[in-house]
Amino acid sequence: MRRRSLLTGAGIVAAAGPAYAQRLARPVRIGFLSPSRPTDPDLDQFRLGMNRIGWGEGRDYIVKARFGNMDVGQLTTLLDQLLLDGIDMLVAYGAATRLVQVAQRSVPVVFSFSGDPVAAGYVRSMAHPGGNATGNSQMMWELVGKRLQLLREIAPKTRRTLVVQSPDHPGEQEERSRTQSVGAELGLELMIRPVRDRAALEVALSEGAAAGCDSMLCFTDAVTIPNRQVIADHALRMRVPAVFPRREFCEAGGLVSYGPSIPNLISHLATFVERIAGGMRAGDIPVEWPTLIETVVNKRTAQAIGIALPPVVLARADEVIE
């Protein structure tokens, strides 16, 4: 029998997960929940991962996808729809993972997001999740200092750096602490501005400009990612070098990004789906950190703001946007 949940217009009010894991009959019905748009590549990357493990869509699995279209307020309703459709498990991406604690009461959950899943309360520990959810985190503490070092390498005369980040993002405190520590070592004055929405972000960008910030940095979170175009445009308009945590910022016109390959992480979710479908408990499968790191450089932006990118940076770039 397929699991069902008791729903109301406000969302899930009661749901009971399985007492033990069991092999799922194929085709496995997978709910895919994303805060992005259907035109974004998230679902295609997941399908690519399923293809790589030898699963055929329609034969081995069926995807029922729901997209928030950048409106996180819609995610609870979309989850309700997926559960009513009788999905066997949920794949939650990005800001959709904020529903992990609710969804895992009904079905196993596989997630990928930019924060710390332990700090978020999704799992008990990375090695032993313990509940009914697992997946991967896009966060890597050790990259924090390397981004500041990259900024110093690109713009050695930089002295004052504007840093924008959401204080509500799980793991933000550790990331901010490490950023401050490395910034002090490099002699950078960091102007850190917490932002909870676009309005606060625009105020922070204006404050940074007024304070004479000559460079920029941002964290990956539910505020900066949807507003990456605003951030990239501001850095271009102010003609300041900026280092970002993901390639999407460079695709929006940002100068340089250094961080995990998000397409690779989404594709790799297929391996979690395979193990859960084979009878493993989600809570027994360790959560994984990123393993593939990439550097993306936007040469057009460098030329526009008058930055001569060091040859060594261009040589180690995985992609150069001409």
Structural commentary:
This protein has 322 residues and is of the alpha/beta class. The chain folds into two domains: 6-137 and 262-284, 3-Layer(aba) Sandwich (Rossmann fold), CATH 3.40.50.2300; 143-260 and 293-321, Rossmann fold (3-Layer(aba) Sandwich). It is 34% helix and 21% strand. The protein has eleven helices and 14 strands. The protein has helices at residues 42-52, 75-84, 100-103, 143-154, 172-185, 198-210, 228-238, 247-251, 262-277, 299-305, 311-316, and strands at 6-8, 11-14, 28-34, 61-67, 89-93, 109-113, 133-137, 160-165, 189-194, 215-218, 242-244, 256-260, 293-298, 319-321. A seven-stranded mixed sheet has the order 9-8-10-11-12-13-14, sandwiched between helices. A five-stranded parallel sheet has the order 4-3-5-6-7, sandwiched between helices. A two-stranded antiparallel sheet has the order 1-2. Helix 1 (42-52) crosses helix 9 (262-277), helix 4 (143-154) crosses helix 5 (172-185) and helix 6 runs parallel beside helix 7 (228-238). The longest helix has 16 residues, at 262-277. It is elongated and about 60 Å long. It starts with 5 loop residues before the first strand and ends with a strand. The relative contact order is 0.14. The model is unreliable at 1-19 (pLDDT under 50).
> Could you report the average pLDDT, rounded to the nearest whole number?
91
The side-by-side strand order for the widest beta sheet comes to 9-8-10-11-12-13-14
What is the count of structural domains?
Answer: 2
How does CATH name the architecture of the largest domain?
Answer: 3-Layer(aba) Sandwich
Uncertain stretches: 1-19
Please identify the oligomeric state.
Answer: single chain
Share of residues in helices = 25-40%
- How many beta-strand segments? 14
Identify the CATH homologous superfamily of the largest domain: Response regulator
Structural class: alpha/beta
Strand content: 15-25%
The best one-word shape is: elongated
CATH secondary-structure class of the largest domain: Alpha Beta
